Amino acid sequence: MNLILLAIIALGAIGLISALLLYFASRKFAVHEDERIGQVSAVLPQANCGGCGFPGCAGFAGACVKAADKGSLEGLLCPVGGQPVMEQVADILGMKVEASAPKIAVVRCNGSCENRPRLVQFDGAQSCKVQQMTGMGETGCPYGCLGCGDCVEACQFDAIHINPETMLPEVDEEKCTACGACAKACPRQIIEIRLKGPKGRRMVVLCNNKDKGAIANKVCKASCIGCGKCVKTCDKFEAITLKNNLAYIDAEKCKMCRKCEEACPKGAIHAINFPPRKPKAEAAPAPAQAGEKVPVATATPNVQNTQNTPINSKEQ
Amino acid sequence: MYGVCIALLPAMLASFYFFGLGAVTVMLASVCACVFFEWAITKFILKRDRLTVLDGSAILTGMLLAFNLPSNLPIWIIVLGALFAIGVGKMTFGGLGQNIFNPALAGRVFLLISFPVQMTTWPDNAVDVDTDALTGATPLSLMQKAITEKNPSLLNDLPSSLDMFLGLSDGSMGEVSALLLLLGCAFMLWRKIITWHIPVSIILTVLAFAGLLHLANPIYANPMQVIFSGGLMLGACYMATDYVTSPMTPKGQLIYGVCIGLLTVIIRNWGAYPEGMSFAIIIMNAFTPLINNYCKPKRFGEVVKKEAAK
Amino acid sequence: MKTFKIGGVHPEENKLSAGSPIREAQLPKQAVFSMFQHIGAPANPVVKKGDVVKVGTLLGEAGGFVSAPIYSSVSGKVSKVDVALDASGLRRMAVTVDVEGDEWEETIDRSKDLVRLSDRPELDAKTIVEKIKAAGVVGMGGATFPTHVKLCPPPGKVAECVIVNAVECEPYLTADHRLMLEHSEEILVGLQLVMKAVGVTKGYIGIENNKPDAIALMTEKAKQYPGVEVVPLQMKYPQGGEKQLIDAVIGRQVPAPPALPIDTGAIVQNVGTCFAIYEAVMKNKPLIDRIITVTGKSVKQPSNLLARLGTPFSQLIDECGGLPEDTGKVIGGGPMMGKALLSLDVPMTKGSSGLLIMNDKEARRAEAEPCIRCAKCVGACPMGLEPYLLSRMSEQFDWEGSEQNDVTSCIECGSCQFTCPSHRPLLDHIRVGKATVMGIIRSRSQK
Fold first, then answer.
1. How far away is chain A from the Cα of C393, in angstroms, using its nearest Cα?
2. How many of the other CB atoms lie within 10 Å of CB of C365?
3. What is the pLDDT of residues A266-288, one digit of tens each?
4. Which domains does chain A have, with CATH numbers?
5. What does the alpha-carbon distance between residue B233 and residue C106 come to, in Å, rounded to a whole number?
6. Which residues does B291 contact at the CB level (< 8 Å), separation at least 6?
7. Over 50: is that where the pLDDT of A310 sits?
8. What is the DSSP letter of B175?
9. Which residues of chain B have pLDDT under 70?
10. Residue C269: which H helix or E strand, with range?
11. Does chain B have fewer CB atoms within 10 Å around its N or its C terminus?
């Protein structure tokens, strides 16, 4: 009995002394932090992806509070939480944020196994970075996707996966937060963080090949050859520019008229998330003649292909 | 991995010869349990596609674990030890190559602490007739008794160092025949599976430290008997040299070996347990990352840099 | 016997073509001259489509000090000045010549007579370097560093000796071996020229002891050349690395970068380079051909070919019995440091020392298993690095850690990967780490 009592007293005393020590230590060495940082942190996604440009969510919260003290939250955006989260942050800090359009990662390569056959086999370490150092990669295209999945590994949101059929990464539109980790991981800078567009509709050149037309044409069926037809088609809006033999559509200027899509002889321009196109007036009688090809389809052979492009969402 | 298994074969056969059917049962139970747990954990818990069962590491762990057990241990204890060795000692860290502690040793130490009575009751060596007066007492416990009772005459009951070298003494399955263990070690050195640094530094350190103690006070045993007793040979040649848990550079390996040697003698002579080898290796396993961090290999051109600085 | 002190491995020799004498390859139908045949700035093309060129006509002038001119190795008409695929797997500027006949520039001395240094007493150091520079001679061992740059030590550094790299430590390759047997005197005169150009009196020729016939011959011939000493070396890969060779021959180690090999007072030149220097200075012949080993276990006739630069690899393979059916990989260079070719239509360049055709079975890499920290790579690294650690850091993007652990010292010899029992692609990752860290260092120094 005595022994038990002794044990209880001894342990209790040790506990008490430790508690006191801890109490004083926490008072003495407490770090005073702006309360708002904690509050802001609480509404952030806590993915610590670094997509905002700060080291983790706590860093971003600190930056927001600092910016709020200076009077403006401009330039600060949590790409993961997007607008709703930024509004919450602004509420906490008593500020307002301006609307910013949502963005998404776009893989600018359509060099699927079919379009761009594999010429050689790379058997080194399965990493795009390693393969990039050895030269051209498995296909003849020195600009296209290498298909080892560095982007898949970089994604913290499970939003990008390699499609085993095309060997190209596909972005899950619902999961993608446009944090930009995949774009940074890609050694060929194929992935671009673009405006998501109204209803997720957007026009994109799905090619990154900067070689001259003849070479680009040879290596891939779906490459941009820099012919400039799309640029001419778009003279009204001037949304398309041609640089280094590669067309680029400025998402802010694009009016989604889809004319460039038709103009592209290689089908490198893709209309994503648009409803399926109705057959054109002059093409209407065509289906009646069974066996013959629909002219529209022959004129732009890869439009049909668009239906299967990786980036198409479930909306269709 | 299979190379080490081959190196262990002679000692394994010897243990079968000395301890009979019990040894075969223990060996089979241990190896099968280790392989089973490795397979089950990779498949059902880690859910990996690539199964690593056949790379030989689980078999080796099973063999080494069995070597560290008495041959009359109940099978359920062996299975428990294998579960701890593979499950906790290896797979929790991420499997082969990631573990901090030698899995077999982790299993043995776990069993030694949990079941001290069963783990330290050895059957009589079937071949040995000299030490029947001291049933169950191994040379190691005799040595420790001599120190605690300050009675050097107890050491006279020890088998001769030649007998110990050949394997005519009691102990765990793999602890009996230093000769065959050394033979296996020579095989590994010849095949360049291991380098000489760790075994040699451990054995020399023990020899020197135990020798000094013996000279200072005869209650400490003869150093030759010390190195041939217990699990020292097994530990020095097979357990301490485990790739994963030993330092990378020759310099680091020497430091590691010397520290194991010192710790072994200290634990054997002044610790609570008669055998210190497994504890010494486990302790030094924990220091391996630190040793790796401080013992960098000599870079090419470094010598010149220092000379130039002078 | 001497060798370097840290690390090293012993790959199988497989010198299949050691016994076959050098033979001249046929002229190609079309020759492609990449403007990137050397380290440094690319050459700038000076011809245009339709120009008629002869053997030895300048096609591209040097693009800077660390650069080399490119000469035509064939006569004919320039058909294209455009990008073309080269052995590195990139499309780069090149001049394509459609071959017609075999007309040589008249300045080139095509006789086979040996010209000794004593025959040309008027040559001084400056003229020699100028001639080497003008002839476009680069390091022929594979690194293709412009030779004249090596012969002009930076201010404050003094050369003490010249070492000829006749090690040829890469398995399979025998080009240097055959060259020594068939052109020993030319090599020695070339060495004398280098010694004169840098003003030293001591020259070494380092030969590995797997070539006893070459050691015997060179030792015999070297007796007539004062100051030249043949040093037999113990066989070990990568002894042909510049730093390893200096360590092996004169026992000095080059400090970590940014120090240069010249800091040890040694200038290293490949045997092939010495031969090219001899031809450039004594025969006025620019670098237009070289000896290339075409070999492999399934190749019908493993050979050493004297081929014109710009010849497509496919033609060279045809001359040695054609591409075997079980080909898995064709490697430009040796098996340790060479690079697998993407296409056989790429032309040979100044740095093409060999063409190795591996069969399917040899070519396949074994699947990587987890690292068991056996430290075999640490023991094998000739630079005293920790490949397992550098590779892991690179995989985890730890560039700071890679830099602290001297990733920039890596010579990419591949010894670590060769020795790894788990078949891990160590060098693949280390190369990425090295390139990234070098980039970080460069951008830091620019700031």
1. 14
2. 12
3. 888 988 888 877 655 444 443 43
4. 35-93 (1.10.15), 103-277+290-306 (3.30.70.20)
5. 79
6. B247, B252, B255, B256
7. no
8. G
9. 123-138, 167-171, 176, 303-310
10. strand C266-270
11. C
Which of the listed ranges A83-92, B14-23, B225-234, C399-408 does the model predict with the highest average pLDDT? C399-408
Average pLDDT, chain C: 91
Q: Which of A306, A250, A249 is nearest to A274 (CA)?
A: A306
**Distances, alpha carbon C256 to alpha carbons B100, B277, C155, C251, C261, in Å:** 33, 42, 19, 16, 10
Confidence at residue B136, expressed as pLDDT on a 0 to 100 scale: 47
Contact C432 A133 (CB under 8 A): yes
By the CB < 8 Å criterion, does A6 face chain C? no
Q: How many contacts, defined by CB atoms under 8 Å, are there between A and C?
A: 45
Check CB contact under 8 Å for C342 and A120. yes
Query: How far out from the chain centre does Cα C387 lie?
Result: 24
pLDDT at residue A114, as a whole number: 85
CB A146 within 8 A of CB A126: no
Give the chain B residue nearest C253 (alpha carbons).
B301
Which residue among C90, C342, C428 places its CB closest to the CB of A119? C342
Read off the pLDDT band of C290 (50, 70, 90): very high
| Inter-residue contact C400 to C437 (CB < 8 Å) | no
Q: What is the pLDDT of residue B169?
A: 65
Average pLDDT over residues A223-244: 88
Residue of C nearest to A212 (CA): C83
DSSP state of B299: P
Closest residue to B243, CB basis, from C243, C369, C373: C373
* Closest-CA distance of chain C to residue A112, Å: 19
How far, in whole angstroms, is CA C447 from its chain's centroid? 34
Residue range C38-58: average pLDDT? 92
Q: How far apart are CA B190 and CA C352, in angstroms?
A: 39
Q: Across the interface, do C342 and A136 touch by the CB < 8 Å criterion?
A: yes
DSSP-derived pairing of the beta strands C202-208 and C228-233: parallel
pLDDT in tens, B71-88: 888 999 999 999 999 999
Look at residue C81 and give its three-state secondary structure.
Answer: strand
d(CA B9, CA B171): 18
Q: What Cα–Cα distance (Å) separates residue B128 from each residue in B18, B148, B263, C16, C341?
A: 8, 27, 30, 60, 68
Chains A+B touching (3+ CB pairs under 8 Å): no
**Cβ contact, residue pair B305, C255, below 8 Å:** yes
The predicted-structure confidence for C92-101, as pLDDT tens digits, reads as follows 899 999 999 8
Name every chain B residue with its beta carbon within 8 A of the beta carbon of C373.
Answer: 97, 243-244, 248
DSSP assignment string, A165-220:
TTTEEEE-TTT-----HHHHH-TT--EEEEE--GGG-EEEE-----S-HHHHHHH-
Q: Tell me the range of B222-231, B258-267, C140-149, C334-343 where mean pLDDT is highest.
A: B258-267
List the domains of chain C with CATH numbers: 26-99 (2.40.50), 117-282 (3.40.50.11540), 291-363 (3.10.20.600), 376-446 (no CATH)
User: Mapping DSSP to helix (H, G, I), strand (E, B) and coil, where does residue C382 land?
Assistant: coil
pTM of the model: 0.83
Nearest to A134 among C89, C368, C429 (CB): C89
The whole-angstrom separation of Cα B145 and Cα A21 is: 45
Task: Tokens 């201010």: give the residue.
Answer: C155
Looking from the CA of B200 toward its CB, the CA atoms found within 13 Å total: 10
Q: Determine the pLDDT at residue A290.
A: 40
Q: Give the model's pLDDT for residue A283.
A: 40
Is the Cβ–Cβ distance between C131 and C236 less than 8 Å? no
SS3 A68: helix
Q: Do B300 and C383 touch (CB under 8 A)?
A: yes
Higher pLDDT residue, A23 or C366?
A: A23
